[in-house]
Amino acid sequence: FVTTAKDSSKDASDATSVAEPAGPDSMSVSSAVPAVSTPAKDPAKAHWAVYLALILAILGVGLSVYTWYVTQVAGQLEAGRELGRLDGVDRELTRLVTEQSGLQVRIDAALSQNLDDKREVLESIEAAQSELDARFKSLADEQEGALARQNDEISSLAGTLAATRTQLGSVEEDWTLREVAHLLLLANQRLSLLGDAELAKRALTLADDRLRSVADPAILEVRRALSQELSALERVQLSDISGIALDLSSLVQTVSALPLKGDGDRPDWIADAQADQSGKDSSTASSVDKDKPGFFAAWMSRLADDLGSLIRVRRVDETQSPKLDNSERFLAFENLRLHLLVAQLAVLRSDQAVYEENLTTARTWLNDYFESSSESQRFDARLSELMQIDIAQELPDISESLTLLRSQIGARTPTE
Known about the structure:
Number of strands: 0
Distance between the termini: 135 Å
Order of helices and strands: HHHHHHHHHHHH
Helix content: over 70%
Number of helices: 12
Largest sheet: none
């Protein structure tokens, strides 16, 4: 910047030195022009005009030089600043280029390393894939062999199961037939021994349901017999055996509440004397004083009252039964209960004759040994109603199905 200023000063001085010789010429020219174009004037005024023109020329030259100088200096300064800025930009650009070169080197190295890593990973993956394919192939071969062996075992097991199923099916059917035989035997026993047609019907129905699962044409004959026996049981008019037995049981429970004959003929003085004995004794002891006058008369009056309570007279129009003692009372109650229990057993066995006989005996015993009270009358009325019920039943024979089933079981036994 200093060198440029010196050069500018030198150029300005050169310009001044160059401009100075031109002064006289200019003056001569300017002095010559008025001489040509204007008439002659005063020499003093002409010198002042020349001086003024010279001063103006000098000022113009100076202004021109100053303007040129300022322009040159400002241009040099601006050029210097631009050069400095361009130099900084160049240095920054150089630094950036250097950094970019280093970064590019690192990027290239990283890319190269990445490529190497990718190559190694790909090689590892390919190796693992190859090993996995080999293992899969080995496992597939092993699985195929295992499946083949399993299929062989399943085929063998299926054959064994088929044979076992056939054998078990035969054993299961035999067991079912024996269960049905037991049900049929139970139905025959309940019907023949107890006359329980309802339970026999349920047993036959259950037996028929069990026989449905037996796939043997020979069992159809047994089921046909079962159907006929069920139809015969449906036509039986059943009495309410359970209700009759419960009625007799309730009558047995009420026997002890019936009054026996002779219980109403007990003198009142027995209970009254027992209840008032202690009170009378205490009152007599307190009211009678031997030391007072009239003691003997009071005692005689008391004795007469006691003797009067012992004697009672009443009118009797019929023969009275003697009063029963404790053992006879027990026998009276228990004998009535016994006849009712025998009648209850006859109901369960459908024995009409025994049933009617014991009810008749119970009514006779009731009339002979028990008072004709409201309880006894209701008891007798209920016995009369029970005697009107017909417990005898015409029961069908249901043994045919059991006979046929036993023959089928006997026929199957040798083949087991």
